[in-house]
Amino acid sequence: MRSDANIAGPMTDPVPGPRTESMGGGVSRETPPPMDDTPIGRAAQLAVEALGRAGEGLPRPEQTRVMVVANQKGGVGKTTTTVNLAASLALHGGRVLVVDLDPQGNASTALGIDHHAEVPSIYDVLVESRPLSEVVQPVPDVEGLFCAPATIDLAGAEIELVSLVARESRLQRAIQSYEQPLDYILIDCPPSLGLLTVNALVAGAEVLIPIQCEYYALEGLGQLLRNVDLVRGHLNPDLHVSTILLTMYDGRTRLASQVADEVRSHFGEEVLRTSIPRSVRISEAPSYGQTVLTYDPGSSGALSYLEAAREIALRGVGVTYDAQHAHLGAHNDQSMVEGIQ
Ligand SMILES: Nc1ncnc2c1ncn2[C@@H]1O[C@H](COP(=O)(O)OP(=O)(O)OP(=O)(O)O)[C@@H](O)[C@H]1O
Ligand SMILES: [Mg+2]
C-alpha cells in the first residue's frame, strides 16, 4: 500500500466507459441538460462546472489515508457517505478504494459493482486469505475509483472469523499487502461493533463518523468511542476519530441546528464545517447503481459531498479550511456550511 503522488494534480478527465444501463432515461434532474453526450463526460463536466474551478486540483496525501466509516446506529448515512465521498475524492483527482465491509452490500450496489454470490469478494480476503488485488473492481463510472465488493457470504464471516488466526487484523494485513497506489481507502462498516467493524478499526488510522441530524443522534456513540479507545490501546496505536460529518441536515428545522450545535460542542474540531443536506437526489442515486456525483452532479447533494471531500483533503495536509469560500456552486446553500449560517 503506498501513495504515488503528493502533488496537487488537476482533475483528470475520467475515462469514457459503457455504463448506459444505470442512467435512467426518465430521471428528473435539478441541473440543465449537459453538452457532452457520454454520461461520464456529462458527470465530469458538470462536477467541474459546479466546483467552478476547472484545472484546480486538491493536495494528495503523502501516504494512503485509510478512513473507517463507522457508527453502529443503522441508517445514519454510512454507506451514502462512503460512496459519495469516495467518488468526490476521485473526481478531485485522487485514487480511491471503497472496501464494502457490510454483508448488505449496499456500497457495492451504489457503485454499480456486481456482487452476486459467486463474485470474488471481501469475504474471500478476510476468511480465505485471498489477496485484495484479486477482488478489487474498477467502478465503471468514475476514473480512479475502485471497490472491493461484499457478497452475502460476508454474513457468515463474523462467526467464521472467530476461529481464525489474527482474526482482528486480517483486513489490515490484506491492505498492507495491496500494491496498487492509492490516496484513500474508505471502509464502509455494518451497523454493529462486531469482528467486521473491529477489522476495519485495526486496518485504518482514521475514523469518520457520520451523524444523522435527528433526535438521539449522539446515543450509542459512547460505545463506538470506547471501542475506538480499546482498539487503539491494544491493536492500533494510530487510530483516532478524525472526522465527524453531519448528514441529512435540514437547515429549516430547529432540531437539525440544535443537534449540529450539540455535536460541535461535543466533538469540536473534528466536525466538518460542511454538512450534507437531506436530498432526494442522494437517496435516488443508489437505485441507478450510481453515486449522486454521476447521477446528478450539479445537485446540492453532489456539491455538498464534493465540498466535504475538499475539506477532508485540505485538513489532511494541514491546510485550514475556509468555509467562507466554500464551492457550493449556483446553489450556494448556506445550510450546507452551517458554520456560517
Ligand atoms: N443526505 C441524504 N438525504 C436523503 N436521504 C439520505 C441521505 N443520506 C442517506 N440517505 C438515505 O438514508 C438511508 C440510510 O442511508 P445509508 O444506507 O447510507 O445509511 P447506513 O448508515 O449505511 O445504513 P446501515 O446502518 O443500514 O448500513 C438510505 O435510504 C439513504 O438513501
Ligand atoms: Mg450501510
Automatic annotation (TrEMBL):
<dbReference type="InterPro" id="IPR050678">
    <property type="entry name" value="DNA_Partitioning_ATPase"/>
</dbReference>
<protein>
    <submittedName>
        <fullName>Chromosome partitioning protein</fullName>
    </submittedName>
</protein>
<dbReference type="InterPro" id="IPR025669">
    <property type="entry name" value="AAA_dom"/>
</dbReference>
<feature type="region of interest" description="Disordered">
    <location>
        <begin position="1"/>
        <end position="40"/>
    </location>
</feature>
<dbReference type="InterPro" id="IPR027417">
    <property type="entry name" value="P-loop_NTPase"/>
</dbReference>
<comment type="function">
    <text>May play a role in septum formation.</text>
</comment>
<dbReference type="Pfam" id="PF13614">
    <property type="entry name" value="AAA_31"/>
</dbReference>
<comment type="similarity">
    <text>Belongs to the ParA family.</text>
</comment>
<feature type="domain" description="AAA">
    <location>
        <begin position="65"/>
        <end position="240"/>
    </location>
</feature>
